[in-house]
């Protein structure tokens, strides 16, 4: 079969590799209909290996049809259309038993540690897969995993309906966070970015307030739209160096700051200001299949968020030039979806 194999920095090859073969216990073989690529993939290409263990078939966001069901992959049949979660958890460690499978001590990610879904076929355990409702197209279903990450983030933030929520950085995962926060009833939702195209996407997703902060203070922009009190929840999804500090300054007394964006270096933060306003600092990682994937499919079925977020659909052969490269350069307008065959 054809697959996108990551060999190292600047080296992704579309090549012929062996088919996945028979499913082992609990696994399924899925014929991939659509995959999607994200910042993780382009970062591995641009300056990896970070998390990836090359050579490995990329792809942790995909949808397809089940073509083989291993013993113990209960509840699935050949022909089922399914999405897969990205991470495989062990099920027995302290964190798995507490339902926090994203923190599993043995967590392995498809497309980074083991072969993923940017290929014609992929092997995935049934317990991380969910059946796709008929009204969700393949293109839209390819977004279920990143949307699940955003839903997990917003759940972690404790955002309640009617609370002011600011999202800093609305490209990539930030766009999905805008959609997830609006679905949870954020009011108002303030989208902040330095790129007008990404802000336009946020507006299409329903953000009533969008601010370009290229030439103005992030925290002032948030305070201005919250009558000077700050947002109940500030979600930092840009990874920009100054954003965590700005997020803190723009959080309401007793509010919460959620860090989503990965910082490349340690940052200084004014903990005095945190403490005297009793602001909670929270973090988030990946998603929990059992909770977040079904919620993502429900949201995709009930909104047209996929239309707002998808930039283009490309063939696997064009993955690097039309997908990875523009994503790494920051010139992709939105999500890039890949058709493997
Ligand atoms: Zn991803
Ligand atoms: Zn575990």
Shape: globular
Low-pLDDT residue spans: none
Ligands: zinc ion
Counting DSSP E segments of at least 2 residues, the number of strands comes to 18
N-to-C order of helices and strands = EEEHEEEEHEEEHHEHEHEHEHEHEHHEHE
The computed structural class is: alpha/beta
| Residue fraction in strands | 25-35%
For the biggest sheet, the summary is: 7 strands, mixed
The DSSP helix count reads 12
Radius of gyration: 20 Å
Describe the fold and architecture.
The protein is an alpha/beta fold and 341 residues long. The strands form four sheets. Strands 3, 5, 6, 9, 10, 17 and 18 form a seven-stranded mixed beta sheet that branches. Strands 13-12-11-14-15-16 form a six-stranded parallel beta sheet, sandwiched between helices. It has a three-stranded antiparallel beta sheet with strand order 2-1-4, with no helix packed on it. The longest helix is centred in the middle third of the chain and has 14 residues. The protein is globular, with a radius of gyration of 20 Å. One zinc ion binds next to helix 2.
Which descriptors would you attach to this protein?
alpha/beta, 341 residues, seven-stranded mixed beta sheet, six-stranded parallel beta sheet, binds zinc ion, 18 strands
Describe the protein's topology:
Layout: E1 2-8, E2 11-16, E3 27-37, H1 39-47, E4 56-57, E5 62-69, E6 81-84, E7 87-88, H2 94-97, E8 108-109, E9 121-125, E10 129-131, H3 138-141, H4 144-157, E11 165-168, H5 173-183, E12 189-193, H6 196-204, E13 209-212, H7 218-224, E14 231-236, H8 243-249, E15 251-259, H9 271-276, E16 280-283, H10 289-302, H11 305-309, E17 310-315, H12 319-329, E18 335-339
């Amino acid at each position: 079969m054809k697959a996108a194999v990551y060999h190292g920095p600047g080296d992704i090859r579309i090549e012929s590799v062996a088919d996945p073969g028979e499913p082992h216990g609990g696994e399924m073989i899925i014929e991939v209909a659509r995959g999607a690529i994200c910042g993780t993939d382009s970062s591995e290409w641009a300056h990896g290996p970070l998390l990836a263990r090359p050579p490995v078939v990329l792809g942790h966001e995909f949808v397809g049809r089940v073509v083989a069901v291993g013993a113990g992959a209960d509840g699935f049949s050949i022909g089922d259309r399914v999405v897969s979660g990205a991470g495989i958890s062990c099920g027995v460690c302290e964190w798995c038993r507490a339902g926090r499978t994203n923190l599993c001590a043995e967590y392995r990610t498809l497309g980074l540690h083991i072969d993923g879904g940017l290929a014609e076929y992929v092997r995935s355990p049934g317990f991380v897969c969910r059946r796709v409702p008929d009204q969700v197209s393949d293109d839209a279903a390819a977004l279920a995993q990143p949307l699940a990450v955003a839903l997990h983030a917003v759940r972690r933030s404790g955002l309640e309906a009617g609370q002011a929520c600011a999202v800093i950085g609305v490209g990539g995962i930030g766009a999905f966070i805008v959609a997830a926060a609006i679905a949870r009833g954020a009011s108002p939702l303030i989208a902040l970015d330095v790129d007008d195209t990404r802000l336009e996407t946020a507006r299409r997703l329903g953000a009533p307030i969008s601010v370009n902060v290229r030439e103005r203070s992030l925290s002032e922009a948030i305070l201005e739209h919250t009558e000077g009190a700050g947002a109940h929840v500030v979600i930092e999804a840009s990874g920009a160096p100054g954003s965590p500090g700005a997020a803190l300054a723009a959080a309401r007394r007793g509010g919460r700051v959620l860090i989503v964006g990965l910082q490349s270096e340690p940052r200084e933060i004014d903990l005095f200001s945190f403490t005297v306003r009793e602001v909670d600092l929270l973090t988030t990682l990946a998603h929990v299949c059992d909770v977040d994937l079904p919620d993502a499919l429900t949201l995709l079925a009930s909104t047209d968020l996929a239309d707002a977020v998808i930039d283009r659909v490309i063939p696997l052969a064009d993955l690097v030039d039309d997908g990875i490269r523009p994503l790494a350069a920051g010139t992709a307008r939105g999500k890039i979806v890949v058709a493997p065959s």
